[in-house]
Design brief:
The chain has a single domain, classed as Alpha-Beta Complex (Lambda Exonuclease, Chain A). Helix 4 (56-64) packs across helix 5, helix 4 runs antiparallel to helix 8 (181-202) and helix 7 (112-131) runs parallel beside helix 11 (241-254). Strands 1, 2, 3, 4, 5 and 6 form a six-stranded mixed sheet that branches. It is α/β, with parallel strands linked by helices and 345 residues long. The chain is built from 14 helices and six strands. It is 49% helix and 14% strand. It has helices spanning 4-10, 21-38, 45-48, 56-64, 66-74, 81-101, 112-131, 181-202, 208-215, 225-233, 241-254, 285-299, 314-317, 326-333; strands spanning 54-55, 136-145, 148-159, 165-173, 262-269, 274-281. The structure holds iron/sulfur cluster. Residues 65, 67-68, 71, 307-308, 315-316, 319, 321-322, 325, 327-328 line the site of iron/sulfur cluster.
């Protein structure tokens, strides 16, 4: 009886040098095809949640606790009721402020392109106001960082007495005092991302194909009748989605709107509607890009989700997910049990 190894040895050639060239090519092709099947790429979080883009607030929430942001997406029903009430009241206050400067009209959409057309029309309608030195609220901004499409809504843009373009972000708080340093850090990051995206837009970096390729929209898609009518009312004659994209690109790049000069965050007490304080935020482009790169690495599947480090474990005390949090459990078991890489920042 022969040993299996000997059987192979005595039967077919066992090394590539024994094979004629054509057979070798075939074996290599089959091997690499098999390897591909074995090494099937895992889904990235972007793919898992069917996301073609992220919101700026996704990244700023992530900067508070990435694990909490993921739980918030997967298990929103576990969010503490007081957090939901606070968020809803905040939304109502924002809407009330928006209504102070313009009316909100209802428009029926018939395609994904129609939904994006509304965002673009909102943007187009504020460009002349900014050009004339006016103040705008709820301004949509879009852009790409580290290959990921980001969308956000700037609360307010106004010119200051010095003639500088100033971004004002309103934060409403349930408690009648200013937030902690960690909370402020999250808010700083949010407004810095807005500036990063807005500046790129007015510098002409948001080309029409950037939007269509990232969001997978069809420029040739005809716009719905209500969209076309609304566009006509605000001064634009458009037929298909691509027309609006071209108009947006031209209006942004040909306008003389400057980049944002100053970033301010106003903290208001929700119940009494009193101003608690204003923070002026310093914009450091390199740092903003580095942080965005770090957070987006999670979304692109380049690293595992992480919770807070031990020095920020106090955040877990007020977290809606503290009872079920895997990261917290692993941290309690000891540092050697943790699987994720150590946070670099
Ligand atoms: Fe993050 Fe702590 Fe909440 Fe876990 S318990 S999600 S680590 S804040």
């Amino acid at each position: 009886e022969q040993h299996p190894k000997q059987q192979r040895d005595s039967g077919k050639p066992n090394s590539s040098s024994d094979l004629p060239l054509e057979s070798l090519k075939k074996v290599l092709t089959e091997d690499s095809a098999a390897g591909k099947v074995k090494r099937k790429r895992a889904q990235t979080p972007l793919e898992k949640y069917y996301l073609k883009y992220l919101c700026v607030t996704d990244l700023s929430t992530q900067s508070w606790c990435e694990q909490q942001m993921v739980y918030g997406r997967e298990l929103p029903q576990l969010q503490a009721p007081e957090t939901v009430v606070l968020l809803n009241t905040g939304k109502s206050i924002h809407l009330a402020r928006e209504l102070e400067v313009h009316d909100v009209v209802k428009i029926r959409t018939t395609s994904r392109e129609d939904s994006w057309a509304i965002k673009i029309l909102n943007l187009l309608s504020v460009i002349p106001v900014l050009q004339a030195g006016g103040c705008v609220r709820e301004l949509p901004v879009f852009g790409v960082i580290e290959g990921v499409f980001l969308m956000g809504i700037i609360d307010e843009l106004c010119y200051s007495a010095k003639g500088e373009l100033e971004l004002r972000e309103l934060k409403t708080r349930g408690r009648p005092f200013m937030p902690s340093g960690a909370q402020k850090k999250k808010d700083y990051f949010q407004v810095c991302l807005y500036k990063y995206i807005f500046d790129a837009m007015v510098q002409g970096k948001l080309k029409p194909d950037v939007i269509t390729s990232h969001i997978q929209l069809r420029p040739e898609q005809p716009l719905g009748s209500q969209i076309r009518d609304h566009a006509q009312k605000v001064g634009f004659t458009v037929t298909c989605f691509g027309d609006l994209l071209e108009l947006m690109y031209l209006n942004l790049t040909l306008s003389d709107i400057p980049g944002i000069d100053c970033l301010k965050i106003e903290y208001n007490h929700q119940e009494s509607n009193t101003l608690l304080g204003t923070e002026v935020v310093r914009f450091e482009e390199e740092k903003v890009r580095e942080r965005a790169q770090y957070y987006l690495a999670y979304w692109k599947g380049q690293r595992e989700v992480q919770g807070v480090e031990i020095e920020e474990a106090w955040k877990c005390q007020s977290c809606s997910y503290s009872e079920i949090c895997d990261w917290r459990k692993k941290r309690a078991e000891g540092p050697e049990q943790r699987s994720g890489p150590k946070k670099s920042k």
